[in-house]
Amino acid sequence: MDPIVDVLLKNGALGLLAGVGFYLFFRQLRLTEKMQEQNLQQQVADTAAKVKLTTAVEDLATTVRVIGDQNASGMKGCQANVDSRFEKIDDYMTELRKEHAKEEGRREATNPRIRVPKKGASDDSR
Question: Is residue 116 in some structural domain?
């Protein structure tokens, strides 16, 4: 027989109680170690998942930054194009105003809206 079991049996009921107590203690210790190992494995898996997620988020941030830079440069080109079109429209409107002013000037010369009084006439005679 095992010497430990032999000693516990010689001590009677207290020996049996001590044996059961040791058995339960060592069983609990084994279960605790098993649970700690499982917990450690879960933490390792969780950390690996977080690393993958962090890498994916960093890649996404880089992609969004590049797309934003491309859009910004594209918008600058678009803004320059729009500005040049506005300049052309402004030039065209200026030309139209000049032509309109020339026509108005001709009309005023041939048919003035305000009649200049002749010399010696009073202001009341219109």
Answer: no
How many domains is the chain built from?
A: 1
Integer angstrom CA distances of residue 16 from 5, 9, 30, 64, 122:
9, 7, 21, 71, 144
- Between CA 16 and CA 7 the distance in angstroms is 10
| Domain assignment of residue 79, given as a range | 3-105
Amino acid at 46: D
pTM score, whole prediction = 0.43
Q: What pLDDT does residue 115 have?
A: 64
CB-CB contact of 123 with 117 (8 Å): yes
Residue 56 has phi, psi (to 5 degrees) of -65, -40
